[in-house]
Amino acid sequence: MALSKNPNSITLVDVARVSGVSLKTASRVLNQEVSVRRATATKVRNVMSSLGYRPNELARGLKARRSATIGMIVKNLADPFTSNAVKAVEEVARANGYIVILASSGWDPEVERSGVESLIRRQIDGLIISPIGSPKSSFVDIVPPGLNVVTLDQPIRNAPFDSVMIDNRKSAKTATQHLLNHGHKKIVALSTRSQLYTSTERIAGYRDAMNKAGLEVRTGLVEDESSMTADWLDQLISKQHQADALFCMNWVCTMSALRGMRQIGKRLKKDLAFLSFDDFDLADMMKPSISAVRQPSNIFGYEAAQLLFARIRGNVAPKRRSIVLPTQLVLRESCGCELKG
Q1: Which tens digits make up the pLDDT trace of 271-293?
Q2: Which domain holds residue 253?
Q3: Domains in the chain, number
C-alpha cells in the first residue's frame, strides 16, 4: 500500500497504518527498542523506507528532553590544533546520533560569553569549550545546573567541569632541555597571551630547564601576535639577547616568528636554532624542517567528546575528571638535529 502524500508530511501514524501495527509498536521500532519481534521491526522499517518517512527530530528530542545537539566553542578555527580537534568531536558526535553546533570566540571574552548563552538557548545537551582563560572571561555563572561541560586545553578553576589537556610544563621543559643538549645557551622563549594557563605552564617549563642549567631566562611575551613585527623580533633576538635558539610556545607565535626571521635575514639552524610548541602541516617539508612539540589534537577532540557523551548517558561518576594526554617531541632539523636518510 502506498500513499500519495508529500514525503515530508508522512507521519508515524501513516507508517503504523500501512504496516498493520499499532502506533506504539511503530514508535518502538523507530526508537530501536528490543521488545519488538524481528520480523515486525523489519516490516515497519521497510514501510518507513518505501514511504520516505522522516522522523521529526525536534519533536522526538522534546519528548525525550534532549536536542540531539552539542555545542563547541573554540578560540581560533584557523589553528591546526583546533581544526583537528573539531573534526574528531564531530566524528564522535555523529556516531552517537548527534550534531555539533560550532562557534568561535576569536579570543574575545564577550563573544565567548554570548556564544555560551546562545548555545544554552538552543537547548544543547552538552558543551565542549576551549576557554579563553582571560581574567575578563566569564561564563561559568550562566551554565545551568545539569548541563554537561568539558573544557579543552585548559581547566577552569572552581568549576565542576571535566577537562582534557596535556602536561604543558613537562612538555616545554623537555623541549628546552633538548635545545640545551645541542649546546644552545641563549634560548629565547616567545609567547602570546602570557596570562593563559597554557602559556604560563609552558613558560614555567622553559624556566625550569634554564634555571636547572644555571642559565639566564630570556623571554619575549606579547599580548597579541600582531605585535611580533620583524623590527620587534630583530630587537629581541639580535640586540637584546643575542639569541642562539628560539622556542615558540604556540602555533601563532611560530608563524609570526618564521615570517619575521625571513624578513630580517635570519636563517633557521645556521643563524638560530628553532623549535615550535605545536606541529603543523608542511613543518617536515620546510628547509630546514621544523622540530616541534606535537599535541595529539585529534585525541584531544576524541577524548573530550567521549567524556561528554559518557556524562550525557550518565555513565561517569559525579566527581570531576581531568584527562592528561602525552605529547611527542618531533625532532627534525631546525633544532640542530641531523636527519638520517
Answers
A1: 999 999 999 989 999 999 999 99
A2: 168-294
A3: 3
